[in-house]
């Protein structure tokens, strides 16, 4: 059972939209005092609900105009360890997320590249050479309408 109330969830919603918003501004929006908001934020951090603050970069302005989601099925070769694959894939700087999933593929990766030719280089030279990499399916991101919130 959750020990969090509607104010906690409203606070998390506001912080997910702007993590740099001051406690005073949050308090004003929620009709509370600044110290009360600080106590709630600290409690949420101490309980592990707030795990950190994230900087969101504009990848296109940094020259990474292509995002591709890869589905990777590990090959049936014996001796392939999940840890070996995860360690190797996590070392590729263009790989933004690594998700171990159930379904048709074993892993789902979010990969950024400068352009399609750059993505092909990453795919051929880095991803396809990973220990245990088998079938791969690529889906190019066309647009992203919503970033996930805290709930």
Description:
By secondary structure, the chain is α+β, with helices and mostly antiparallel strands. It folds into two domains: 6-46, Arc Repressor Mutant, subunit A (Orthogonal Bundle); 66-140, 2-Layer Sandwich (Alpha-Beta Plaits), CATH 3.30.70. Helix content is 36%, strand content 20%. The longest helix has 13 residues, at 34-46.
Overall geometric form: elongated
In DSSP terms, counting alpha (H) and pi (I) runs of 4 or more, how many helices?
5
Secondary-structure element pattern, one letter each: HHHEHEEHE
Task: Report the radius of gyration as a whole number of Å.
Answer: 20 Å
Low-confidence stretches: none
* Category from helices, strands and their pairing: alpha+beta
* Main sheet overview: 4 strands, antiparallel
- The N- to C-terminal Cα distance equals 16 Å
Number of domains: 2
Question: Can you count the beta strands?
Answer: 4
CATH architecture of the largest domain: 2-Layer Sandwich
Classified in CATH, the superfamily of the largest domain is Lrp/AsnC effector binding domain/regulation of amino acid metabolism (RAM) domain
Helix content: 25-40%
CATH fold-level topology of the largest domain? Alpha-Beta Plaits
The CATH first-level class of the largest domain comes to Alpha Beta
Give the percentage of residues in beta strands. Answer: 15-25%
Mean pLDDT: 91
Strand order of the largest sheet: 2-3-1-4
């Amino acid at each position: 059972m959750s020990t969090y109330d509607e104010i906690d969830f409203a606070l998390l919603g506001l912080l997910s939209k702007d993590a740099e918003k001051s406690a005073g501004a949050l308090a004003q929006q929620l009709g509370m005092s600044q110290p009360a908001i600080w106590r709630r934020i600290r409690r949420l951090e101490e309980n592990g609900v707030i795990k950190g603050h994230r900087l969101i970069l504009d990848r296109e302005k940094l020259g990474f105009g292509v995002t591709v989601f890869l589905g990777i099925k590990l090959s049936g070769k014996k001796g392939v360890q999940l840890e070996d694959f995860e360690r190797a894939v996590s070392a590729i700087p263009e790989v933004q997320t690594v998700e171990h999933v159930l379904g048709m593929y074993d892993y789902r990766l979010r990969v950024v590249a400068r352009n399609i030719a750059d993505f092909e280089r990453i795919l051929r030279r880095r991803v396809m050479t990973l220990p245990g990499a088998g079938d791969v399916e690529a889906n190019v991101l066309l647009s992203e309408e919503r970033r996930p919130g805290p709930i």
